[in-house]
Amino acid sequence: MPRPVLAALTLAAALVALPAAAQEKLTIYTYESFTSEWGPGPAVKKNFEDVCACEVDFVAVADGVALLNRLRLEGARTSADIVLGLDTNLTHEAKETGLFAPHGISLEKVNIPGGWSDDVFVPFDYGYFAIIQDTEAFSTPYKSLKALVNGYPEQRLVIQDPRTSTPGLGLLLWVKAVYGDDAAEAWERLSSRILTVTPGWSEAYSLFTSGEASMVLSYTTSPAYHEIAEGSTRYKAMAFEEGHYLQVEVAAATIKGAENPLTAQFLEFMTGPGFQNAIPETNWMFPAGETSKPLNPAFDHAVKPGTKLSFSADEVAANRDAWVKEWLEIMSR
Amino acid sequence: MGQLSDRRVLAGLAGLTAVGLLIGGAFAGLISQAVTEWSGAVSALDPYLFRITRFTLWQALLSTLLSVAPAILIARALARHPDFPGRSIILRLFALPLALPAIVAALGILALLGRAGIFADLLGWLNGGQWQGIYGLSGILVAHVFFNLPLATRLLLHALETVPGDQWRLAAQLGMGPATSFRLIEWPVLRAALPGVAGLIFMLCITSFTIVLTLGGGPRATTLEVAIYQALRFDFDPARAVTLTIIQIALTVMVVTLLIRLGTDMVGDPNLPVSRRRPSIASRRETIFNFALILSALLFVAAPFVAIIVSGLQADLSRLASDPALHRATLTSLLLAIISAGLSILLSLSLTVARSALELKRRGQGHPSILERLLDTGAGFVLVVPPVVVGAGWFILLLHSGNVFVMAPIMVITVNAVMAMPFAIRAIRPAWDGASKRHEKLCASLGITGFNRLRLIDWPSIRRPALTAFAFAMALSLGDLGVIALFGSDAVKTLPYLLFERMGSYRTADAAGIALFLGIVCLALMMLADRTRRNA
């Protein structure tokens, strides 16, 4: 075997062998941006390990969808105690796998617009989808989704593909929630304004900040990033009269994790300041539980939707295929 | 003789088996999962599939044509002017697009031709109205040509450089003009290399994903690859993913077979070259034409890079340079790239050696056997098996056999190595075929066989192309990570991974800085390969 290969194998083996401490361990499956150095992962790990005298082991896969697929494949033999990072559009399918256990904790600290009650999934953050405008490209914001749909053809929008991206699916549901059966017609009008449809959020947002489009689909909290990290108020979320579509991110115990006492302790911890304080300025979403300090004022500037729009997980599961197909028909013309 | 060629063929068989195992294993994994829910296989076959298949083929064929046709002229111009100022830098630059993540290249191109691009005003004026950017088929084509024209140029130039110096001397002595020497000397070599090069580029374009969606302007422009990705990543429907992948492979096999029919088999020159490698001197008019050609190709490829450099320089480079995450990612990238490039060369060499041994055995007569064909183009088809399919399939297989975390880096290395094989084979094969044909009788009569022959006789003639192949494979290996979407990726945080991580957490400037850094690392690798090559 060539020496570099040997070296790499040794390295890989060493990386895996390292966390073999004799402590109690909690294994959490999550998505990559959660555990990245910019994400909430590092702070959450430290804060929980301080109170639990245990070791938190994150396993990160690409995104929320990959997370569910990974769990499906591993089935009951998964090593995950907790799966963290599904969103409400996935919870129906997740429940159907029968791999999740009731959380059994009190949800009194949970704070989600419209309230939350679920015996399996515990929310850890939420956000509203919003169209972000580049105020250097045009200054007057659209006041409603309908105004946007009928707006100036020169002002272009970048969106994400609902087949490959969660925000992309979010916009699809948003339009459906506002327009109902007329959604197809709305897409038809909007389609001439859409500069391009990207596979994921990153590509769309990069096109937007590079000046290619004057609007992008993102979250109401996106401008807070630019304000806090860059001191810039160039990018603003537009408040729509019809309301904004809500995305809630959740975690749940697996049936294997239900046997680990640390699991319930973590879910409980997740709804409190040790976890929630990290959320706003690392995940750039709103905390879904109790924080011990007020949010950065930049978050107060975020659009506060008058109406919260959302479909239930069951409705989404039942209609997603048909709605995506409808969208595809119109957009491929 | 029999034993010797047997051993060469055995090496090829081993290489082919390794590739077969990688792909076969992935399919086995997916199919084992698909049998529980196979309805997706049927539902995949709808009118929409027909539409995207048509578009996939159309854009790939156009992209291939637009990349390869100019590349013939550019490669020839470069071959005829070995003293062209900055030629080696141009060639290194031409290897860089391969290492760029698609979105970085797309942003580079849009910085020029996009709605807010440098040329937007000019293009808007020409177009009579506000310029709306190159979204649509034209955008896809420009991006694909940006990726593949330089690749085709380098590969064709390699083929041209296998023309022995003797032929050029003879051409000069006979006073052949550019047209005659093209027809008699260059075209036969190019024609032999073209099907392979075109096939390779066709495969790269057929599997294009981010470019097609982002620059295509929306789902109007969708490839099969997007549908496969959706089937696996979003819907987790292995049956549909397998069906779509098989359609993608079948289409590619059809097109590539057609391409091969258009080409001819290369007839290697059995004589030992005695003259210096030096084409005939071009006339003044031809020189001007060639220089203009090379310069416009250079502009076309370099301009997006300038855009990438400009936006990269806006990043906080000093902070980035001292970022430990960047150091770790660079090390990981280099380690993975070197190992997988090494593995790739090993596999490619084994296939090339076996194929040429089989061809020599039948003395270039009759039809090549199935094995010979497999060794030739068969391995190339791995390119159209999407990495996400390989990754998911192996994940399912390995799930029942222990620790999947250890497997993430190994998956990245093997998949990258195998994906780079078609490139490596294209670079190595012309030189190897010529050399082994030249040396065959001599070695047989001197009784030099096996490893000794490889080391003493054949290696010196393929050292240069092998190093080129190595550099290509490394550049490629710096790229895709789709293969480990399910595996858990903490062990393989490479530079492109870091780039996406930053891009995904609003740090666009950091991402631009990393893209610049990725380009620099790749350029350094190319220079290193060139230096080793010169000293070799």
TrEMBL record, chain A:
The answer, when asked if Signal is one of the entry's keywords, is yes
Protein name stated in the entry: Thiamine ABC transporter substrate binding subunit
Q: Please name the source species.
A: Aquamicrobium zhengzhouense
InterPro entries named in the record: ThiB, ThiB-like
Per the UniProt entry, the signal peptide is 1-22
Q: Give a single Pfam family match.
A: SBP_bac_6
Q: Which NCBIfam families match?
A: sfuA, thiB
According to its UniProt record, where is this protein mainly located? periplasm
Provide this UniProt record's keywords sorted from A to Z. Periplasm, Signal, Transport
Query: What is the annotated localization of this protein?
Result: Periplasm
Family in the record: Belongs to the bacterial solute-binding protein 1 family.
Asked if the Swiss-Prot or TrEMBL record annotates the protein with the keyword Signal, the reply is yes
From TrEMBL, chain B:
Residue intervals passing through the bilayer: 12-35, 55-78, 90-113, 133-151, 192-215, 241-267, 288-313, 333-354, 374-398, 404-428, 466-488, 508-529
Q: In this protein, which residues make up the domain named ABC transmembrane type-1?
A: 53-260, 330-529
InterPro entries xrefs = MetI-like, MetI-like_sf, ThiP_ABC_transpt
The protein's matches in PROSITE patterns, at most eight in alphabetical order, are given as: ABC_TM1
List keywords of the entry alphabetically.
Cell inner membrane, Cell membrane, Membrane, Repeat, Transmembrane, Transmembrane helix, Transport
- State the superkingdom: Bacteria
CDD domains assigned: TM_PBP2 (cd06261)
Q: Where in the cell is it found?
A: Cell inner membrane; Cell membrane
The membrane topology term of the UniProt record is: Multi-pass membrane protein
Principal location: membrane
Assigned protein family: Belongs to the binding-protein-dependent transport system permease family.
Fetch the NCBIfam families from UniProt.
thiP (TIGR01253)
Report quaternary structure and partners.
Answer: The complex is composed of two ATP-binding proteins (ThiQ), two transmembrane proteins (ThiP) and a solute-binding protein (ThiB).
UniProt-listed PANTHER family: MOLYBDENUM TRANSPORT SYSTEM PERMEASE PROTEIN MODB (PTHR30183), THIAMINE TRANSPORT SYSTEM PERMEASE PROTEIN THIP (PTHR30183:SF9)
Protein name per UniProt = Thiamine transport system permease protein ThiP
Q: Organism, per UniProt? A: Aquamicrobium zhengzhouense
Q: What is the lineage of its organism?
A: Bacteria, Pseudomonadati, Pseudomonadota, Alphaproteobacteria, Hyphomicrobiales
Gene symbol here is thiP
